[in-house]
Amino acid sequence: MVKLATAREARLYGSGRTRERSEYTNAGLYLFSTIVLLCGFVAQFSREAKSGLVVVLIGLGLIIVVNIHDLVAHLAAFDYQMRLIELDTQLLFVEVMVPVVQAVGGLLFFIAILFLVLQVDRGFGYHMIEGHALNMLIAGSSLWVLGSIHNSCQFYEHTDGHIQILQHCVQIPFLMGSLLFLVGAVLNFREQFGHSHHGLHLLTNTWVWICIIASSLLMIGGLTNVVKVVKMVNMEEIRLEKLRGGAQERLICDEHGEIPFLVEGRRRRPKI
After folding, report:
1. Which domain of life is it from (predicted)?
2. How far apart are CA 52 and CA 41, in angstroms?
3. Dihedral of the CA atoms 19, 233, 148, 189 (nearest 10)?
């Protein structure tokens, strides 16, 4: 999951109360999805392990929705004018690619778990999908790791120290959780190699425990993200540096015929 929408100052999610509601909804929905995901993995140790996988599917579906919502917000920041992406490297590789990569990773993870649920339900008709399910678990987790690394590449030199700490407290649990999902998927694949297991037996206890720890880290990151969003939405002034020469600056320049930071500099220049 990525949460970068608060890093920009233009019309993300709209304006005023609309933006605030959307920010809170986005952050709250992601936190809820991680809690659902954690509950689903914990349920794997109960008698209703199959129901636990269904809960995991719900959590993954919510994570995909949140990432798509973030992508739409980032594109709305420059009025969906795709030609402006070439002016802003961070916009392309962080704010556009990260939600896409995370959403695709979540989708692969979702399909892998769905295959296992179908095999439990319909048995013999799905015996040929075990390898595909295990491979997609690895592929989905790998994309999550890639997205988390890209997410951590967003740097601001002139930023409020408290906001920087909160940003890192969001990024680090996401990265560690994604890495653990990948480690769990690889270990599960190695343990299943050479064996002929089906359905729930394809998921080892090692994988389940690692996923529980990873989901807990995502939940911690989601909780910290809620704190960060609340603080940034209620800030009286912008404490993130403005990105010079980017897509938003070009959009404002096209609309108003002035370069924003030059106008701001004239306003701040003391009168003699």
Report:
1. Eukaryota
2. 6
3. -70
Q: Residue 6 gets which letter from DSSP?
A: G
Cα–Cα distance measured from residue 192 to residue 128, given in angstroms and rounded to the nearest whole number? 14
Phi-psi map region of 10: left, alpha, beta (phi>0 left; psi -120 to 50 alpha) = beta
| Contact status, residue 210 vs residue 183, Cβ threshold 8 Å | yes
Q: Is the pTM of this model over 0.85?
A: no
97 pLDDT band, cuts 50/70/90, is confident
Q: Structure tokens of 13? A: 């999610």
pLDDT tens digit string along 2-57? Answer: 344 344 454 455 556 677 777 888 889 999 999 999 999 999 888 777 888 999 99
The one-letter amino acid code at 122 reads R
The phi, psi pair for 252, rounded to 5°, reads -65, -40
Gap between the Cα atoms of 230 and 227, Å rounded: 5
240 close to 166: Cβ distance less than 8 angstroms: no
